[in-house]
Design brief:
The chain is mostly helical. The chain is built from twelve helices and no strands. It binds heme C. Heme C (HEC) binds next to α8, α9 and α10.
């Protein structure tokens, strides 16, 4: 115990640095790889977390005795935001969120592991770890230069690593093939479907099914980035933001063209047809969606959602 507490006194800021790194990389993974949209509250937390990944690295490198005093204002404010966000998500004490009325909802549960681990929960744990570790460092006082041999390659590696990561991220986001990888599989899939219908000798139920599955998969990806924030990851709807699209009569009754026209136009809150008093922005706020992409989303709306009844049926 003695030795552990001595180790902790010496290493707590390194633990804080590791926590800031895990949080920063995890947050970038969720938005850039998994395609989850950060809400306004999420952005406030990112603004407070990302600098810590660098600040802690530079402070450790310089062995700056003031480092805890620089870190705590960020981590405590972040802790406040994350706590508020988590309570907003899981309880009713704050009622409807006021922070994210337009755009991405603050209460969309992108993940909900074990029923309680959501993204704000992970942020809370991150800020709490950094706060506690920094408080320990503050309490331990200035490091003893003889005992605490510096390991400069670690923070230097952290800084260079983050810079490389940012560069790789930019290169990835701007890669020229992006548009084609999104659209061509859809075009190819419908062309293949067409082909199999037109020429009976090449027609095979299998290739038709593959094309349909590819179309639905492309639609699913696009739905998650363009529509899920308001209509829910499973189309279950988000209270006060967007209605349910599973078992939706309008979706069932309309033709693909009618649905596409509806989504393109959106529906203003003042529109007489509006049922919820909440607006749907034209193209769901994504004017960049091509017609192909829209049709893929619509195909996904028809076939993609696994409803509780269906999954129960599968289990039987
Ligand atoms: C910013 C939030 C938001 C986004 C993003 C959004 N919608 Fe909507 N959507 C709404 C709201 C709100 C309504 C309900 C309007 C009303 O009350 O009549 C709606 C209604 C709909 C309806 C009609 C449902 C019905 O029963 O009348 C469809 C279909 C639909 N959206 C599809 C989509 C698709 C597809 C996307 C993605 C491309 C999308 N929406 C993106 C907010 C959104």
């Amino acid at each position: 115990m003695e030795r552990f507490s001595a180790w902790l006194d010496r290493s707590s800021l390194w633990v804080a640095l590791a926590a800031a790194w895990v949080a920063t990389l995890g947050s970038l993974y969720f938005s850039e790889v998994a395609g989850f949209l950060p809400c306004t509250l999420c952005w406030y937390q990112r603004i407070l977390m990302y600098p810590l990944a660098l600040l802690l690295a530079v402070g450790l490198l310089r062995r700056d005795p003031h480092l805890p005093a620089l870190v705590l204002p960020f981590s405590l404010t972040g802790l406040g935001f994350a706590t508020y966000h988590y309570l907003l998500e899981k309880t009713d004490i704050f009622g409807q969120p006021t922070a994210c009325q337009a755009g991405v909802s603050c209460v969309t549960a992108w993940i909900n592991w074990f029923g309680f681990i959501t993204i704000p929960f992970l942020a809370l744990v991150g800020f709490l770890t950094i706060t506690v570790m920094t408080a320990i460092a503050l309490n331990a006082g200035e490091p003893d230069p003889d005992v605490d041999a510096p390991a400069p390659w670690l923070p230097v590696g952290a800084i260079v690593g983050l810079a490389l990561l940012a560069y790789a991220g930019l290169a990835w986001a701007n890669r020229p093939v992006q548009a084609t990888t999104l659209i061509f599989p859809i075009a190819d899939a419908s062309a293949a479907a067409q082909q199999s219908r037109l020429s009976p000798e090449t027609a095979s139920p299998a290739s038709e099914a593959t094309a349909q599955a590819e179309l639905a998969a492309a639609g699913a990806r696009l739905y998650q980035t363009a529509c899920a924030a308001c209509h829910g990851a499973e189309g279950e709807g988000v209270a006060g933001i967007g209605n349910a699209l599973v078992h939706n009569e309008f979706v069932h009754a309309a033709t693909d063209a009618e649905l596409a026209a509806f989504v393109r136009a959106g529906r203003a809150a003042a529109d007489p047809a509006n049922q919820s008093g909440v607006a749907m922005p034209p193209s769901g706020g994504r004017p960049d969606l091509t017609d192909h992409e829209l049709l893929a989303i619509i195909h996904f709306l028809r076939v993609g959602f696994i409803t509780p009844a269906e999954s129960a049926g599968e289990a039987d």
